[in-house]
Amino acid sequence: PLQVCSENLWRGFEIGMSSGESSIALYNSKVYIKQGIFSGENLQNLLKKVDYHIEIMNRFGLNISTMPTMTAYKETILSLVGECRDENKNAGAPEGPSNNNTVEMKKLVETMLISKALQAFWHGHSQRCHHHARKVIENPMGVQGNKLYLLFYNAVNSFRG
């Protein structure tokens, strides 16, 4: 199940940081956060780990290109727990991916659409959830794992009306 995968991803983060492999550590952390959102991990604990991830990135100047993704995950978690903290909206985030890197921009757009679909789903906005989920699902260049997650949420969402 996703929970076991999440535990291993966090272990991967810890091992990566302790062995000096920061890129592997941060990749594991980023995927851990995403899996945690989908697998139903306690959102308050997940929010602490997102903040920890961002703090490490800022402290060591590591892999700043993933900061917009982490900011999107943080906004999703804050929305789901019913908090809106405007001061955190772009906490530590650079302007976003450079316009030169279209792959990076496409990943960020997909992350934002996933975040919007999840927020809409959990807030009971069926049509909005369907709209954002379809954009990810129908994207031929999208990440297959993301499509599977959203197919599930979209199927459950279809029973809501």
SSE arrangement, N to C: HHHHHHH
Q: What general outline do the C-alpha atoms trace?
A: globular
Average pLDDT level: 81
Helix % is over 70%
Low-confidence stretches: 86-99
- Major β-sheet profile: none
Secondary structure tally: strands:
0
If helices are DSSP runs of H or I spanning 4 or more residues, what is the number of helices?
A: 7
Rg is: 15 Å
Sheet/helix structural class = mainly alpha
Distance between the termini: 28 Å
Strand fraction: under 5%
Q: How is the quaternary structure best described?
A: single chain
Structure notes:
The chain has 161 residues and is mainly alpha-helical. The chain has helices at residues 2-18, 22-39, 43-60, 67-80, 102-122, 126-137, 144-158. Helix 1 (2-18) packs antiparallel against helix 2 (22-39) and helix 2 runs antiparallel to helix 3. It is globular. The model is unreliable at 86-99 (pLDDT under 50).
